[in-house]
Amino acid sequence: MTTTKVNKRIFLSSPHMSDEGYEMEYVKEAFDTNWIAPLGENVNGFERELAEKVGSRAAVALSSGTAAIHLALRAAGVGEGDIVFCPTLTFSATANPIIYQNATPVFIDSNYETWNMCPKALEEALKKYPEVKAVIVVHLYGLSADMDRIVELCKKHNVVLIEDAAESLGTYYKGKHTGTFGDYGIFSFNGNKIITTSGGGMLVSDNEEKMAKAKFWATQSRDQARHYQHSELGFNYRMSNVVAGIGRGQLKVLEQRVDKKNYIYEFYKRELGELEGVKFMPSNDWDAPNYWLSSMTLNGIVRPSDIFDALEAENIESRPVWKPMHMQPFFEKYDFIGAGVSEKLFENGVCLPSDTKMSDADLTKIVEIIKGLWCK
Ligand SMILES: Cc1ncc(COP(=O)(O)O)c(C=O)c1O
Prior knowledge:
Largest sheet: 8 strands, mixed
Number of strands: 15
Radius of gyration: 21 Å
CATH architecture of the largest domain: 3-Layer(aba) Sandwich
CATH topology of the largest domain: Aspartate Aminotransferase, domain 2
Structural class: alpha/beta
CATH superfamily of the largest domain: Type I PLP-dependent aspartate aminotransferase-like (Major domain)
Mean pLDDT: 96
Number of domains: 2
Low-confidence stretches: none
Shape: globular
Bound molecules: pyridoxal-5'-phosphate
Helix content: 25-40%
Distance between the termini: 34 Å
């Protein structure tokens, strides 16, 4: 019998608990006090600490980022038949809650300058659908969207702005944290995010009244009464006290994680940036990105699939850029405004392994494998 030596897998982005064990301290406290649920001090603390970190007046800890988008749409008053603009280049979780509300998404293209929502396409969409109820903007891979122009357009047209900052915790636009420009912002703590709670999300806003309402909806819309009384549809969307404990610990190492993601990005850019046809994700003066996933496009003989295959052969994970929503079988019936930039980014894009646990030896190995493809 032959044995095959399998290399330890290098992930795109996987959970990375603090070396200091901060998370366990909070989780242990929840266990020691038997305060596993419901809610509890870790939930309150996590909300307070995250709101402070990003500079928002209020935060509600939820079971997922998707739940946070759903409640943001409800808070925005989005309902049956309403139009909601959504970037086409994103994860389906940005768009799904629009359907939960029986509303209609209209997908907006990216531009090359940001990879995010193109303000020109947004302007065109606002002309075509002046009745639009809300705009969701995403900060993809931790790059901020062109917020000055997007905020200005939303204000001019009096449209609610929701920021899907699931991938951009730690990213600042002109010194202000992403997720705090719109009426509502959301963050995700799922397993591949820059910090994780194993699963979870946060809704933030300066509108404390709406946030109290979101909290109410997230706890099954229980009216104030001794018995169980409900006058509105409710959801079971709150975060548990154990999960929030992980979040509090992770929040303490957010800056460390951002530094490492920046280091990974600079490493790749230095080593791969000059290869023929390679173009790295855009960088803009306004942006201090968290570089959640280091990504690039290829415009030459070496194709993205060559990289995916070569890395996978060495047990290393990499991935295409998000497949646009308007190309997805489930969403293709909805309108799309744009010039096909997102399609090109999908066709030519590569998300490189960006796990913060990687060593320099891991990074060197990855760039050597990739460079080898140009020498064939
Ligand atoms: C852009 C974007 N939006 C929304 C989500 C949804 O977050 P969650 O998985 O916490 O529901 C994710 C991540 O999964 C995401 O990447």
